[in-house]
């Protein structure tokens, strides 16, 4: 074959001057069309890869060839009908030549179905100082994607500083099966390219656009008009997007299920009013809004598969703003409220009254919710609650009042997961109460609760009397400085055979005796964290018989020697050791 002969000739003349080789090489005098015509009779993956190794010109010519360009059909076992591959080009590897090589050799390994291209800091820095050669993927690379990846279903372009509308048009023409498109910090892409995507990709279901400064309302209008298959849209930090584009999406896509709008200039009141008419919408996120009427920071809602979360907003600083959540979204499964000064006890109860099917509830940095409001909410409106998370809620303060008599019959018997983090004013009284109304806890996570003692932890886990054992599987007690060996020994004794994960990081009052108890009782333990502890080499020796461990965290343990760590790692080669 002529091309094979050229490969052999290149090997023999590799040491000769390049200019002389170019004058003697007959292929350099042929136009690209003729060389492509020769390659069209060579569909075999191995031969194509050998030809591509001759020079960059041969590589790029073959990378731009489509399946329909070949005159000879591939054999059945080389048709590329294998499993779909996922490929990620990141940093210095995100180059056009990498995409070309991938397009040529992919036939022997399967079909590329998921492609991610990510720029990094080095690429950005190089681009800022160089004006001659682009560092990173360009329109030529996306042209290769459009030609060589006809079965592509997911494409992510992050930090691609040199990709323009032309490259995006090539993708829309060649990748008709594309379902997911993710664009982040692509400054040269404008509405013109996005309109071409909306018209060409009729199977697109998920669109994410972030920090693309030249994408505006016209793009969203086009997707609302030409892409009825879209069910998930995320737009963040696009300064040209406003009310007009948001309304076009909500009005043109009645089957939209997930919508995220962040850091945009739009009227929050109008958006919420229009959202109520989108009956199919199951996920809504409004975050970091800059209002037209009052340019102040605000945020909104996050609903993920029947979920909703509210962040602080000047427009939500009244109880009336929380009532519609329960009225319009009575079938919500999860509610997460973060950083809201608007939410108080009355607002919390208002949400609970409307959302009767609530299964997951999370509060973070909500400093107007008190202990009594939380108790009233959990006692009266949490009969289906399975997960409760409280983080940095400083207003939830224990008092000397007896909370056991406040609630009617306890309604938290379905609660399985409890997470309390950095609520510095919570202690044993809260654990006493929550332990009295929950009987099916499986996962307990207490982080940074310095006022919790052995007695409070026993009340939570052992149901006070200790006669009935909960189905506890995971326990995290990081930063609970008031705990001693007594409570850990009791946990291991009661739950050892069923315990899967135990985390005791940064608990200074725990000694190496805990490891001996853990090794004796916890026969099913997979993950163990004793970071920041006072354990020694002799204490670590007790864990040598725990061959079933998969993760062990020994970070910041000054009492351990490197010899003891190496010995443990040698006998537990399947364990992920963190030092």
From TrEMBL:
This is Uncharacterized protein. Residues 175-286, 384-573 form the F-box/LRR-repeat protein 15-like leucin rich repeat domain. SMART domains: LRR_CC. SUPFAM superfamilies: F-box domain, RNI-like. InterPro entries: F-box-like_dom_sf, F-box_dom, FBXL15_LRR, Leu-rich_rpt, Leu-rich_rpt_Cys-con_subtyp, LRR_dom_sf. Residues 1-24 are annotated as: Disordered. Pfam families: DUF7885, F-box-like, LRR_6. The lineage of its organism: Eukaryota, Viridiplantae, Streptophyta, Embryophyta, Tracheophyta. Gene3D superfamilies: Ribonuclease Inhibitor. Residues 27-58 form the F-box domain. One of its GO terms (cellular component) is SCF ubiquitin ligase complex. One of its GO terms (biological process) is SCF-dependent proteasomal ubiquitin-dependent protein catabolic process.
């Amino acid at each position: 074959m002529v091309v094979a002969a050229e490969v052999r000739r290149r090997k023999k003349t590799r040491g000769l001057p390049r200019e002389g080789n170019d004058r003697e090489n007959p292929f350099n005098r042929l136009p690209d069309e003729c060389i492509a015509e020769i390659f069209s009779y060579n569909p075999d993956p191995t031969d194509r890869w050998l030809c591509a190794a001759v020079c960059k010109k041969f590589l790029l010519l073959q990378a731009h060839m489509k399946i329909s360009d070949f005159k000879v059909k591939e054999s059945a076992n080389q048709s590329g009908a294998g499993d779909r591959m996922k490929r990620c080009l990141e940093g210095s590897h995100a180059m056009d030549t990498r995409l070309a090589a991938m397009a040529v050799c992919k036939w022997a390994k399967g079909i590329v179905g998921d492609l991610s291209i990510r720029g990094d800091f080095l690429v950005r820095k190089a681009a800022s100082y160089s004006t001659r050669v682009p560092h990173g993927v360009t329109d030529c690379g996306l042209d290769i994607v459009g030609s060589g990846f006809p079965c592509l279903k997911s494409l992510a372009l992050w930090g691609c500083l040199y990709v323009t509308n032309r490259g995006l048009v090539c993708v829309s023409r060649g990748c008709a099966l594309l379902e997911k498109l993710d664009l982040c910090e692509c400054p040269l892409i404008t509405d013109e390219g996005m309109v071409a995507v909306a018209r060409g990709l009729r199977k697109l279901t998920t669109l994410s656009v972030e920090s693309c400064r030249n994408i505006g309302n016209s793009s969203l209008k086009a997707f609302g008009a030409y892409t009825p298959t879209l069910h998930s849209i995320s737009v963040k930090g696009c300064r040209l997007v406003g009310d007009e584009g948001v309304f076009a999406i909500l009005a043109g896509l009645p089957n939209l299920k997930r919508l995220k709008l962040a850091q945009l200039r739009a009227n929050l009141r109008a958006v919420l009013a229009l959202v109520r008419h989108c009956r199919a919408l199951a996920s809504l996120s409004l975050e970091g809004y800059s209002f037209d009427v009052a340019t102040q920071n605000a945020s909104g809602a996050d609903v993920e598969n029947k979920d909703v979360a509210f962040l602080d907003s000047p427009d939500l600083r009244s109880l009336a703003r929380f009532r519609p959540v329960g009225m319009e979204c009575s079938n919500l499964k999860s509610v997460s409220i973060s950083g809201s000064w608007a939410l108080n006890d009355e607002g919390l109860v208002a949400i609970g009254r409307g959302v009767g099917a609530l299964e997951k509830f999370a509060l973070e940095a909500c400093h107007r919710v008190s202990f009594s409001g939380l108790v009233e909410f959990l006692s009266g409106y949490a009969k289906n609650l399975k997960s409760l998370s409280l983080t940095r809620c400083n207003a939830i303060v224990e008092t000397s009042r007896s909370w056991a008599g406040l609630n009617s019959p306890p309604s938290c018997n379905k609660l399985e997961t409890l997470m309390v983090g950095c609520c510095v004013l919570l202690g044993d009284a809260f654990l006493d109460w929550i332990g009295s109304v929950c009987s099916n806890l499986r996962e307990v996570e207490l982080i940074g609760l310095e006022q919790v003692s052995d007695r409070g932890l026993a009340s939570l886990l052992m149901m006070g009397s200790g006669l009935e054992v909960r189905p506890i599987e995971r326990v995290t007690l990081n930063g609970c400085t008031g705990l001693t060996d007594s409570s850990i020994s009791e946990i291991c004794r009661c739950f050892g055979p069923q315990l899967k994960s135990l985390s005791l990081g940064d608990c200074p009052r725990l000694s190496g005796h805990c490891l001996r108890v853990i090794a004796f009782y916890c026969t099913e333990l997979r993950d163990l964290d004793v970071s920041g502890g006072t354990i020694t080499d002799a204490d670590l020796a007790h864990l040598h018989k725990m061959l079933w461990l998969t993760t062990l965290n020994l970070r910041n343990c000054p009492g351990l020697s490197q010899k003891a760590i190496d010995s443990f790692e040698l006998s537990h080669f399947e364990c992920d050791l963190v030092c």
